[in-house]
Amino acid sequence: MRHIAVLGATGSIGSSALDVIARHPDRLRASVLAAGRQVDALVTLCVRHAPQHAVIADPALFASLRDGLADAGLRTQAHAGDEALQQLVAGDACDTVVAAIVGAAGLPSTLAAARAGKRLLLANKESLVLAGELLTAIARDAGATIIPIDSEHNAIFQCLPSTRELNGTHAGLRRILLTASGGPFRGHAREQLLEVTPAQAIAHPKWSMGPKISVDSATLMNKGLEVIEAHHLFGLPGDRIDVLVHPQSLVHSLVEFVDGSMLAQLGLPDMRTALAVGLAWPERVESGVAGLDLLAQGRLDFEPPDPDAFPCLRLAYAALDAGGTAPAILNAANEIAVSAFLQGQVGFLSIPALVEDALAALPPVPATSLDVLRDADARARRHTSSSLSRHP
Ligand code: NAD
Ligand code: MG
């Protein structure tokens, strides 16, 4: 029996993970559920999944979680705060952790899972962007298995042979091709993006996701973060990680070997497939996702990304190239810019402008420790918050 901590349980990935877990009561059990601030939704999930522990990030909400669980007649123990979450993730209550908190807020619990040698189903790409070298080194030393849940990286994980060379690179791998849906504004010229609204930006054509990653998909920053994520997971430099726009979102990514062979993973755009892969690996279990009817789908198209309308992709490659704290600065500036866009404070094109501004204003330094990265993250957040008024 696998005992699973689902972090970000009330979110889009969290609910997909719980859906797969509930299909396999004989082998999968949700033992820890954690959320940010949604107490009622968390209690409802506890009624359905009866975990041993429930954690709410905001300490001010502890009493309402505790009372909510008691009122529902549950024996689930209530906890609050980051410290409690890290202890539970590292402790005996779970052997597997679904890291699906959104943003850099997911880093401490992701690191705790890696340090404790857990099977880590990593959806929280921001923690790899922010501290990829550290996180992968800690996981390696502690014997933690990282299974990427991001659909592209999960596809690559499925396409690569399981043998890895000692330095973490894959023998014979020439390059990785990440596919991108192109988001809701694919085909738009830069001028057409001036007036787009948050509601338009989060209406993704193919995937149903949380608001932050939906905006990231619309700016292509999501693909930029995924390039950095792929670099850390698969050990390739940026110039061997390409991006292909594929509007049908059926080919989830491809790998190319030195002999000219290419492998791709296909399936319907539903995150339960990646989660089932991670939960059962190396076995396969049902995920609730139907097979792909290629005849019904008809065609698969591919096109290059438009660098003019979507500069975030270029900024992410540049941050990966610059190294050190640059990806952490990129990520933090993006989180602040996206949140300001969602609140109607800045326009869509201000997102890349704010990220570029932060990267130019804060020169990267070597990422020698977690403290250095946290400091870069904090400085980029402050810088970007104070730049908002200059970017309408
Ligand atoms: P979401 O907004 O739907 O859910 C986020 C979850 O995180 C919620 O449960 C929320 O309560 C929790 N949370 C937020 N702040 C927290 C904090 N400080 N402490 C603890 N919990 C906190 O987001 P999502 O779409 O499920 O995405 C989650 C992560 O997975 C992101 O990093 C995203 O990039 C990644 N991801 C998502 C998808 C997808 O299809 N949704 C695909 C690939 C990768
Ligand atoms: Mg993805």
Question: Strands, helices and their partners?
Answer:
Elements: E1 2-7, H1 12-22, E2 28-35, H2 39-49, E3 53-56, H3 62-71, E4 77-80, H4 82-90, E5 96-99, H5 107-115, E6 119-122, H6 125-142, E7 145-148, H7 151-159, E8 173-180, H8 198-201, H9 211-219, H10 221-234, E9 241-245, E10 251-257, E11 262-266, H11 272-280, H12 294-297, H13 312-322, H14 326-342, H15 350-361, H16 370-387
Parallel strand pairs: 1-2, 1-5, 2-3, 3-4, 5-6, 6-7, 8-9
Antiparallel strand pairs: 8-10, 10-11
Helix pairs in contact: 1-11, 2-3, 4-5, 5-6, 6-10, 6-14, 9-14, 10-13, 13-14, 14-15, 14-16, 15-16
Nicotinamide-adenine-dinucleotide binds at residues 8-14, 34-36, 38, 57, 100-102, 105, 123-126, 150, 207, 209-210, 213, 271.
Q: Please compute the radius of gyration using only Cα atoms.
A: 20 Å
Spatial ordering of strands, largest sheet: 4-3-2-1-5-6-7
Small molecules (ligands, ions, cofactors) in the structure: nicotinamide-adenine-dinucleotide, magnesium ion
In percent, how helical is the residue content?
A: 40-55%
CATH superfamily of the largest domain: NAD(P)-binding Rossmann-like Domain
* Overall spatial form: globular
Number of helices in the DSSP assignment: 16
Structural class: alpha/beta
Number of domains: 3
Strand count, sense and barrel status of the largest sheet are: 7 strands, parallel
| CATH topology-level name of the largest domain | Rossmann fold
Tell me the name of the CATH class of the largest domain.
Answer: Alpha Beta
Q: What is the overall pLDDT average?
A: 96
Using the 3D structure, state the CATH architecture of the largest domain.
3-Layer(aba) Sandwich
Helix and strand succession? EHEHEHEHEHEHEHEHHHEEEHHHHHH
N→C terminal distance: 53 Å
Number of strands: 11
Which band does the percent of strand residues land in?
15-25%
Low-confidence stretches: none
